[in-house]
Structure formats: C-alpha cells, structure tokens
C-alpha cells in the first residue's frame, strides 16, 4: 500500500511519463509470456524460432508458430492494465508507451501514443522488395504457411524484430528521447532480459525519472526501481491510476 502511494505521488507530480511494457501485461489476457511456464511451443523456445536463421532454415515452421500465436492474440481481449494505460496517456503533457509486445492489445485497447518496438503480429514484410503489409493483404499460397508478396511475389516474413536483428531506424531514438525527458518511467510485465528496453528504463532513471516496476516476480529492473509494485498488472496498473487520481484530487499534482 505504501509503495502504491509512493508510485502514485511520483506519477501525479510528473509532466512527462514513459511506459514500457512486456509480455506480462498480456498474461491475464491469456497470452503466454515468453520465458515463463507455457512459454514453449511444440518443444521450441522463442529464441529458437524468432531468428533469421530459423526462418532461413524452415520458413514453414516459423510461420506455423506465428500463425498459432496470432490466433491466440486475435481471440484475446485487452485487460484492465491495457485499459488503464489508455487512461494514463491523456493525463500528462507528454506520454509515450513503448511496448515490446507484438500482440496488438495496446492499440486494440485504444493506446495511440504508442510505439511497438518489436513490431506487430498482424503485419508481414517482403524479404525481396521490403514492402510492409497487413498480413491479411499478403497472398496465401495453397498448401503453404508462407505468404507471398502481392507486389513482387517474394516470400514474406513476419514484420517482427527477431533475436540478432537491429532495431528499425528511429525506433530506439524515439524511446530514448522520451526517456531523457521523463519524470516517471513505468515498467510493466517484462523480465528485462532483452537489453535495449531495460536500458531505456534505466536511462530514464539516470536522467532523473522515478522508476516504477510492476511485476509479480522480482527482476533486475525491480531491484533497481525506486518503487517495486509486486503483483499482477491487471490489479496494480488500475490501482495505480486510481491512487494517482486520489493524489491529484488532494492537490499534489503540479502540472
Ligand atoms: N502482470 C505483470 N507481469 C507479469 C504477469 C502479470 N500478470 N505475469 C507474468 N509477468 C511477468 C513475469 O514475471 C516476467 O518477468 O512478465 C514477465 C515476462 O517476461 P518475458 O516472458 O521474458 O517477456 P518480455 O520481457 O516481454 O520479453 C522481451 O523477449 O522473446 C523476446 O522479443 C520477445 O518482446 C519479447 C522480449
């Protein structure tokens, strides 16, 4: 309770806020996280399939995995944590949500000040002409999981950042710029095993932001956080929003 109050005070007095989310925020929507129990698919770990090498070796297998995941995502609905983040985005002079998730639940919840730094599962990219298209617009080949480009017939791949690949131009710049201006950085549901997103959060803290971490399990980020809210995002993010409103009602907010 005391931690929630401290986090609420930090948010209530912030002008600029950066939120960073990971797979844990969608766990309560029924989407398995990458590294926890249930993170396996047919005996494969994500790190074995989400690579350019895996795609080069067996594009059918990789697409089968993505189509399975896409099906789960399409049946899932945003949960109260996604919704609370939509509420939060209008309350600050500047707000940015940088998500590592490709499940599309943030845009479906209504988040607009958003960057999907690892891509989106509904999007495909041509390996030949680099066209980026909604997967539904790609040409399906009978008997194959691998769609082809409607423009040049090239093989399409998921438009997702894979292990070993470089972030797309501008994506990290935008997140680091927001980190340098943030008064509070809210990290939700990430194991912080992937370095740039964790680094963005720590950079924000170094630049003066209060680092708030929400996770049922402690991570390296929770260890560094100014406030660690231990628990589920679906409970704690709405609770934080309401606590922040209460603090604002008491007149502590300065912006
Ligand atoms: N609320 C909040 N956090 C939760 C919840 C929940 N209900 N359930 C689980 N978590 C936490 C776990 O404790 C864990 O720390 O979510 C985190 C999920 O960690 P990962 O599965 O490693 O997911 P993420 O951090 O998003 O992975 C980063 O790695 O595989 C790549 O590119 C992929 O974007 C992904 C990146």
Beta-strand residue percentage:
15-25%
Mean pLDDT: 94
- CATH H-level homologous superfamily name of the largest domain: TPP-binding domain
CATH topology term of the largest domain? Rossmann fold
Q: Helices and strands, in N-to-C order?
A: HEHHHHEHEEEEHEHEHEH
CATH architecture annotation of the largest domain: 3-Layer(aba) Sandwich
Q: Tell me, what is the CATH class of the largest domain?
A: Alpha Beta
Query: How many strand segments?
Result: 9
Please count the helical segments. Answer: 10
Largest sheet: 6 strands, parallel
Radius of gyration: 19 Å
Head-to-tail CA distance between termini: 25 Å
What percent of residues adopt helix (DSSP H or I)?
Answer: 25-40%
